[in-house]
Amino acid sequence: MSVDLGLSDEQRLIAESARQFCDREIVPRARDNDRAGRFDRELAGKLGEVGYLGAPVAEEYGGRGLDYIGYGLVVEAVGRADSSARTVVSVQTSLVCGSIEQWGSEEQKREWLPRLCSGEALGCFALTEPDTGSDAANLRTRATKTDGGWSISGNKMWISMGNVADVALVFAQTDPERKHKGLACFLVPTANEGYSSQEIHGKLGLRASDTAEISLDEIEVPDSAMLGEVGDGFKIAMTALDKGRYSVAAGCVGICDGCVEASVAYATERKQFDVPIASFQLVQELIADMIVRRDAARMLVWRAGHLKDAGEPSTIETSIAKLYATESAVECANAAIQVHGGSGYVDDYPVERYLRDARVTTLYEGTSQIHKLIIGRDATGINAMTPPAPS
Ligand SMILES: Cc1cc2nc3c(=O)[nH]c(=O)nc-3n(C[C@H](O)[C@H](O)[C@H](O)COP(=O)(O)OP(=O)(O)OC[C@H]3O[C@@H](n4cnc5c(N)ncnc54)[C@H](O)[C@@H]3O)c2cc1C
Questions:
Q1: Is 196 helix (H, G, I), strand (E, B) or coil?
Q2: How far is the CA of 127 from the centre of ligand 1 (A)?
Q3: Of 9, 86, 223, 276, which shows the fewest CB atoms inside 10 Å?
Q4: What is the whole-number distance in angstroms between the Cα of residue 135 and the centre of ligand 1?
Q5: Span 163-174, average pLDDT
Q6: Given the CA of residue 387, which atom of ligand 1 is nearest to it?
Q7: In Å, how far are 105, 108, 159, 169, 229 from 224, measured between CA atoms?
Q8: Ligand 1: lining residues by beta carbon, under 6 Å
């Protein structure tokens, strides 16, 4: 790692051991899993064994109690190896475990966190719906009060790990009149009657990541399945996404780093006009631009991580890091293919997978447009996200 401003010895060790683990356990499987479009459950178990699922969760609940910088370093290493594996880490750790740890009752934490952190159980985060993406408060899934519980019905779309999860965090509307103040979040065991899911095929990238369309048909859950209270649903979703965006950004630094590494190796080996192509200034320019983006993205991630570790507000800094790191991952992967010439277009090298996998990161956990609007709103005090009401 060429930039390590302010890393402690322990954090450096975490980064080194994460890289070794990823080179040993993830890299050798990545291409085959991608080709087969296979969700690697065994690998998810190994990620749990080594403590990478729920790394920032407190040790008393089965996590490793890492700080956010340490967690970011782990995610960066996994992202460099394979974004499909990184998706397991990000969803399980930031969206699912993070929400349960922050919002759950003691009973909910004891029931789910140790199993999720160890990888024995998997979780998914079911917010998006067929008609509700960026406008996340506008959910159609309904939760209706019953005697001693709730009945949940609706459809969820694009849910990572929705076919393989044991528990789903389901966001639903309890009272449409109350708009986002009526939203609630439920811990729904996927074995419950009424939960069914279908795999979404034909993705550009993240082919070894499971993505599901979920149908919720009058699922009965007790009152104790609610995370937080009625009305907390939107806050739970936003605090989860704040952690998730940090994780996606860190994973994208890993993609940028992998692009630099693969491009330097290739450019110093491959000869044209009797010299290594690295001798050409235009090839060096491609590599230099990747390095600048990687280092800038990494520093933005670390800034957000430092703020989180200090318990200070970090929503805007996380948006900035997510926007810049995800767009940089796409740029770096595209440039890395250019360095590799025709060889970059096939999966003998990781760079074409980097590009296909990076592409989704500017779409999920807030599209790049949504992040620009968050940053712009903070700077100007004007909300440009929702159109003005018709006069
Ligand atoms: C592989 C994959 C995995 C995913 N995993 C999960 C998951 O685990 N859980 C989950 O809940 N969701 C998940 N998602 C869903 C993801 O978060 C949404 O796709 C994302 O929020 C965008 O919503 P949308 O696709 O409905 O696009 P839309 O919201 O319909 O956006 C379409 C376009 O319109 C633009 N747009 C929308 N509103 C505005 C605005 N106000 N101003 C300017 N432009 C705007 C967007 O930027 C975009 O360019 C996943 C998606 C994918 C593809």
A1: strand
A2: 11
A3: 9
A4: 9
A5: 98
A6: 41
A7: 9, 8, 24, 13, 10
A8: 91, 125-128, 133-134, 158-160, 206, 211, 360, 363-365, 367, 369-370, 373, 385
Give the length of the chain.
Answer: 391
Query: Angle 206-74-67 (CA atoms, 0-180°, nearest 5)?
Result: 130
Q: How far apart are CA 336 and CA 239, in angstroms?
A: 34
Model confidence pLDDT, tens digit, residues 95-122: 999 999 999 999 999 999 999 999 999 9
pLDDT tens-place string over residues 195-246: 999 999 999 999 999 999 999 999 999 999 999 999 999 999 999 999 999 9
In the block, which residue shows the tokens 């990888």?
A: 119
Active site residues: 365
Q: Which of 107, 87, 96 is nearest to 237 (CA)?
A: 96
Helices (H), 270-350: 281-309, 315-340
> How far is the C-alpha of 317 from the C-alpha of 267, rounded, in Å?
35
Q: Tell which atom from ligand 1 comes closest to the C-alpha of 124.
A: 8
Task: Tell me the per-residue pLDDT of 340-363, one tens digit each, with 9 for 90 and over.
Answer: 999 999 999 999 999 999 999 999
Question: What pLDDT, on a 0 to 100 scale, did the predictor assign at position 4?
Answer: 58
Residue type at position 231: G
CB-CB neighbours of 49 under 10 Å:
13
